[in-house]
Each structure stands twice: as C-alpha cells, then as structure tokens.
Amino acid sequence: SDRKASVIVGKYIEKFDLESESAAAVLSELESHHGLLVKPAANYWCFAHKSLQDYFCAEYVRNSGQEIQYLKTHWANPEKWESLAFISSLLEDSTEFMDVLINLSDVENLKTFPAVGKRLKGATLMVKCLTQGSSLTKNSRDRVVRHIISVVENTAKLLEGTGVYPYGFVLGSNVQVGYYYIMGRRRKSTNYAFTPLAALVAEISKIKHRNINSILEESISKTNSLCSKLLLSSCCFMRDPQIMLRTYLQTSVTDDHRLFNGKLAEVAALIESKAPSDNDNLI
Fold first, then answer.
1. DSSP 14
2. Within its chain, how far is the Cα of 259 from the centroid?
3. Which residues make beta-bridge pairs with 165?
4. Backbone phi and psi for residue 67, each to the nearest 5 degrees, phi listed first
5. What is the pTM of this model?
6. Model confidence at 256, in pLDDT bands (50, 70, 90)?
C-alpha cells in the first residue's frame, strides 16, 4: 500500500539525512526516473521486475549471514529459487552452499516417488545455481555436475524398475521427457517423480559448462540402465545433438516392447533432422 511503502522508504532515507516526510516524493522519483519501482494499480507498489526483488532479497540474506539457513528452509520452493541462485552467485565460495544441496537432493536408496520428486527439485535448483554463476573450483564444479547426473540416473533406474520407461525427445529446439509404460505395472505415484525429472533434464540440457558433455558420455558408457542412457544423452542435445543421436540409434529393447523401439526410432529421425548445435558459446 502507499502507506506501507512510505513508511519503509521513510525509515531508509533518514540514513541519508532526508526527512521521512519526503518518502512519497522519493517513491515518485524512483518510479518516474529510475525504473526501480512501479505502481501498476492505485495504492500498490512493486519492483519493476521480479528479478530485482530476488536480487535484493539475496543481498539481504547474504549480508545477514543466513545463507545456509535460508537454503535449508526454502530449497524445495520454486518461488525462492531465483533468490537462492543469486545468493549462490554472490558468495565468494559456493562450495558449502552446494554441499548442502547435494545432501538435500540425494535420491539414492529412496523407494517412494513423492520423496524422490522433492529431492529432484533440489537437483534442479543446483543446475540453476550453476547457470547463475556459482563460485566453484573446477573440481568442485565437476563434482556438482556428477552428482546432478547421478540423480537423473538413479531416478531413471527407479522408474524403469516399476515398468515406466522415460526417454527424451525434441520439441522445437527444447528437450522434453516422455515415457512408455507396461500396462498394469505403472504406479500412480510415479507422477510425483516424473514431472520434476522432466524439468531437471530440460535444465541440464541448457548448462553451458564445457566439461559436462564428457562427464555425461562417461556416465552413458558406464550405466546398464536403458532409460539412464536415453535421458543422459538427451541432456547433451543443446550442446551436441550427435551424442543423443548416437545413443538412440544404438539403443533397442526386447521384442516385447516393439512400440517403444518405434518411438525411439522416431526420436532419432527427428534429432537427425536438426541442425548441429553451436559449441562456441560454452564456458
């Protein structure tokens, strides 16, 4: 409200030897000349863009030394992810921040899909922090990437074990995730994990980290899980579609799943029709 905004601004401007009664004029100045705040409706103020609010929130949390507590409280809430990603990028060393997320996003040995789905959100937040520019050494960054990849692999194995076979496909220029399942075996609770898994794969495909494709290819070659190979290769598409294409062309399942084989062949044909990705923009 106008009154609440004036009270907040009035208290702040007193630090600069301005009278609190000048708050209304300062608010008007911020709106008309600086573009920091806008008044989209009568008696209502907000930041011109939510990213400004997220950044100032991150600065406040960092300056108050509450980074880890804020992370532990809000890591599973997507509405807080932008602020958390800003916090990670503002830290001189994001190692402890990422170590907490590694623990919060570990899906190994979990058997229930709602629990896995929540942990997948933590892995997606890790990707957003990497993309935002977390301050990490090369070894720490590679360790974080390997953990994120392990989350995808372990989730794919869990789904596969219940008769649900997730795979990546290309829609426009984006990677999405679909699934094939054996009638009568699919558990209704798989959706708790499937939706956040699809979001995680899409985010990984956008990472501009030079070593990620080599780490993904190493994981693809080592895993015995059909769906892990499919999803991990899908994560490579934006940087090198040939990795995804090779994996899909080399992958086939038993004759009991001819429909799934046909779906994989369709995906491979679509990948082959796409232009090669531009690798010059990797970091």
1. G
2. 31
3. 180
4. -55, -50
5. 0.84
6. low
